[in-house]
């Protein structure tokens, strides 16, 4: 096993000091540069964790400008590196300037080996901690990388998806149109052991009722006029993978019975066929309808409801995801900048206000479309409300009672999100009693699992 030594770059033009330092720091893999150009090349090639840099670099031995220039370049090239600046004895002012510019620490000459050792050890330690944190962040985001979320309630949804992924539990994602049900289903499939097989989706609202059975279960040759050859249905195509039944609330009642049979017995029969085909799929459903209401109205089978909602995950609408609006806006801005080759740097303060207060009835789909369009409309470096097709007055609430209700409801949802729906903890956070919180939850129709 090889143990790599941590990398240290020394930027120092004094040859004597160079070799002294190189010799002293033999526990590190040391690179040496005598000027800015050599330093930049060494940073590019070796990505050192820690850099020990003299501020007086040639050709400006006596000054500090070349040294500052070097710090700026390294900071943008390798922002994670810890730069320790070496300055002259009484040059406290420039040392502080260097730190303000992005250096991690400073050290005043003449060199005292013990002190310098300690400063370097600490810098390497911090670098390693940060590196570990970055690696953890990357793996934590892993397959949920396409799902942008910062809001506590949404983070909870993401954690649930991660927990459910390895199991075979049938899940139903509920939420308004455009909240990300499909995106989360894809993440669930990607995280599951079935990810080598297909995720097959069927939109139950888009298939005409008379074709639904054939679409789901397939058909044999000659089963009906036009059935020229045996054809697999979506269920069979998803064999060993995941079957995504989108808009399940729109499934006709007759088909609901057939779907229930399949979910209970895990076999299908193609239309016009007699053979029972065993099926192994994980089923995920999505709907923007209230299925429980529908069972009461008799438009959705109660037995099917309980079968598909072994786990129900509610995706909150964008207007309730505090903090996510700007996070998503910036994400789409970056994404479409890249796609269009444009370089719009952000939003005007007034556009930020509008994004934050607008109710986003079309949720994330609407946000994506508006940002995409704004990049085409934008004449400047910053996107305005006009570019987004929104006017500030559209987004402001008009009466005080409404503002108060909205704020109160948001605070409660936020507190519940932050406390994982623990009523005692949430009421403490909000500074109200438990019964008051229950009353408010009832008033605003906030339900927790
Ligand atoms: N958390 C998210 N991060 C990034 N993009 C998202 C997120 N949620 C949704 N989107 C994007 O928003 C759009 C709508 O998402 P999606 O189709 O998953 O919504 P939906 O709830 O399934 O909508 P519908 O009910 O209308 O089918 C997609 O383009 C998707 O990529």
UniProtKB/TrEMBL annotation:
Residues 147-376 form the Sigma-54 factor interaction domain. The modification 4-aspartylphosphate is found at residue 54. SUPFAM superfamilies: CheY-like, Homeodomain-like, P-loop containing nucleoside triphosphate hydrolases. InterPro entries: AAA+_ATPase, AAA_lid_NorR, CheY-like_superfamily, Homeodomain-like_sf, HTH_Fis, P-loop_NTPase, PEP-CTERM_resp_reg, Sig_transdc_resp-reg_receiver. SMART domains: AAA (SM00382), REC (SM00448). It holds the Pfam family Sigma54_activat. One of its GO terms (molecular function) is sequence-specific DNA binding. Transmembrane segments: none annotated. It comes from the Bacteria. The keyword Membrane does not apply. The keyword ATP-binding applies. Residues 7-124 form the Response regulatory domain. Gene3D superfamilies: 1.10.8.60, 3.40.50.2300, Homeodomain-like (1.10.10.60), P-loop containing nucleotide triphosphate hydrolases (3.40.50.300). CDD domains: AAA. Signal peptide: none annotated. PROSITE patterns: RESPONSE_REGULATORY (PS50110), SIGMA54_INTERACT_2 (PS00676), SIGMA54_INTERACT_4 (PS50045). One of its GO terms (biological process) is regulation of DNA-templated transcription. Keywords: ATP-binding, Nucleotide-binding, Phosphoprotein, Transcription, Transcription regulation. PANTHER family: ALGINATE BIOSYNTHESIS TRANSCRIPTIONAL REGULATORY PROTEIN ALGB, TRANSCRIPTIONAL REGULATORY PROTEIN. This is Two-component system, NtrC family, response regulator. It comes from Marinagarivorans cellulosilyticus. The lineage of its organism: Bacteria, Pseudomonadati, Pseudomonadota, Gammaproteobacteria, Cellvibrionales.
């Amino acid at each position: 096993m090889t143990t790599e030594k941590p990398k240290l770059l020394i930027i120092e033009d004094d040859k004597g000091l160079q070799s002294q330092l190189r010799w002293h720091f033999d526990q590190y893999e040391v690179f040496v540069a005598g000027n800015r150009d050599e330093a930049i090349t060494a940073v590019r090639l070796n990505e050192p964790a820690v850099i020990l840099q003299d501020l007086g670099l040639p050709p400006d031995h006596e000054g500090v400008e070349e040294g500052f220039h070097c710090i700026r370049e390294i900071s943008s090239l390798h922002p994670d590196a810890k730069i320790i600046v070496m300055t002259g004895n009484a040059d406290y002012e420039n040392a502080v300037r260097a730190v303000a510019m992005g250096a991690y620490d400073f050290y005043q000459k003449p060199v005292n080996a013990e002190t310098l050792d300690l400063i370097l050890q600490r810098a390497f330690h911090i670098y390693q901690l940060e590196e570990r944190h970055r690696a953890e962040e990357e793996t934590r985001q892993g397959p949920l990388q396409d799902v942008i979320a910062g809001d506590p309630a949404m983070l909870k949804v993401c954690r649930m998806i991660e927990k459910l992924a390895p199991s075979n539990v049938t899940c139903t994602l509920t939420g308004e149109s455009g909240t990300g049900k499909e995106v989360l289903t894809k993440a669930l499939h990607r995280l599951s052991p079935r990810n080598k097989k297909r995720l097959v989706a069927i939109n139950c609202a888009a298939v005409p009722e008379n074709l639904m059975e054939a679409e789901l279960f397939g058909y044999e040759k000659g089963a009906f006029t036009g059935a020229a050859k045996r054809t697999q249905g979506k269920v069979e195509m998803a064999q060993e993978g995941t079957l995504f039944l989108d808009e399940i609330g729109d499934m006709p009642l007759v088909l609901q019975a057939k779907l229930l049979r399949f979910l209970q017995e895990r076999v299908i029969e193609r239309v016009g066929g007699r053979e029972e085909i065993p099926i192994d799929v994980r089923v995920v459903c999505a709907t923007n309808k209230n299925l429980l209401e529908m069972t009461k109205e008799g438009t959705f089978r109660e037995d099917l409801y309980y079968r598909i909602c072994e786990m129900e995950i509610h995706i909150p609408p964008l207007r309730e995801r505090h903090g996510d609006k700007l996070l998503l806006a910036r994400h789409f801005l970056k994404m479409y900048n890249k796609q269009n080759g444009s370089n719009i740097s952000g939003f005007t303060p007034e556009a930020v206000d509008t994004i934050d207060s607008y109710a986003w009835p079309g949720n994330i789909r609407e946000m994506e479309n508006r940002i995409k369009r704004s990049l085409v409309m934008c004449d400047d470096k910053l996107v305005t409300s006009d570019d987004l097709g929104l006017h500030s007055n559209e987004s402001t609430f008009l009466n005080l009672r409404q503002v108060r209700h909205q704020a109160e409801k948001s605070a409660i949802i936020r507190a519940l999100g932050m406390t994982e729906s623990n009523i005692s903890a949430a009421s403490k956070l909000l500074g109200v009693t438990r019964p008051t919180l229950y009353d408010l939850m009832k008033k605003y129709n906030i339900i927790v699992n």
